[in-house]
Amino acid sequence: MARIVMKFGGTSMAGMERIRNVAARVKHVVDQGHEVAVVVSAMAGETDRLVGFCKEASPLYDPAEYDVVVASGEQVTSGLLAMTLKAMGVDARSWLGWQLPIRSSEAHSKARIDTIETGALLAAMQSGQVAVIPGFQGQMEDGRVSTLGRGGSDTSAVAIAAAVKADRCDIYTDVDGVYTTDPRIVSRARKLDKVTYEEMLELASVGSKVLQTRSVALAMKEKVRVQVLSSFDEPSNDDEPGTMIVGEEEIEGSDMERQLITGIAVDKNEAKVIVTRVPDKPGAVASIFGPLADASINVDMIIQNDSKDTAETDVTFTVPRADLARSVDILESRKAEIGFNRLITDAEVSKVSVVGVGMRSHAGVAATMFKTLAERGINIEAISTSEIKVSVLIDEDETELAVRVLHTAYGLDAEQAA
Ligand code: ADP
Ligand code: ASP
Ligand code: MG
Question: Which residues surround ligand 3, an ion (CB under 5 A)?
């Protein structure tokens, strides 16, 4: 017997037929004698719909009321799943965030989970009752509901798995595992049996939305065994049919044939800003990035190119697309102080990143990337690297082509059926 947390995403919960399918899958696991907690997302599209209502109600909506509205999608699916399970003869009940409670930090719409009370939850699970928990929500110190940021149900599931010391946290979604790249972009993407926490963290943070980045960071810290798998496949007798997220030690040695690059991710949520003719003197760059940081705007890629002919430099960087207008406002209001000539912005860019722990011990990964893109005439507008990642910024229109040619260049293509 094992203790298992099962999480079902929005596509898996979209409508009663799919909820019945989810319930049957939960029953299958319960019938094997396991203790089960289930974390659910809102039906696909529901959270977007609710966010739309908030914007319509007031462009500058109150974040506390926003959380009241958007947390409701998960409340509906948790109740529906518990009902459906009962109708199938499986003992089940819903536990809303405030009923456990799941205590969170004081940051509406982007709260972090601090603690989860497990007494009642464990007692229920041990008595054979399935606990159905709405993902994405928590409770603040003052008793009000909070939400964990978009995609946050993954983090709810991992946090609950850590709190109840689950043997595994199975994240059921609409693909059957983590692939070498988004299988909806590259049909030749290959499913990975295992991915390290570190690689998954890097892939998620550069755009692979199959798992929320924070859920991977939490799994890594708490050593939760996470599996990504499909809720649409037939339940299998294999315990691990999807992709397991594991420690590096579980891969080293066991997989000598592993590729240098594990995966490729795309992020279309960034925008580029060029600040031209900034005085090339100490403090100039600080005067650009200081005010952006004060406004909690996350700057990602940065390039500074000093001219040998003049005492001026162009500074290029990226910010989240949603923060572009605010960034321009902030910089324009400080134009005289910073001393630049003009701002050039471009929101039609995308960031393509290659990720792999093999990069630590092998040279030439970046060179292969630049050469492959050059051969297709794809211009690189900015570059950033970490120990296990190289990212380039390119024209948004060239994203699919770039990912496909890189996927082939790094030997990631799956064999095509004859
Ligand atoms: P859920 O609603 O179940 O949380 P998401 O839409 O958040 O599902 O995440 C699943 C999606 O992630 C897939 O449909 C796929 O398009 C996308 N995705 C992006 N990168 C990858 C990848 N490397 N492997 C698998 N899926 C990926
Ligand atoms: N329903 C929320 C969202 O769409 C949380 C989640 O599904 O993970 O962002
Ligand atoms: Mg998701």
Answer: 9, 151
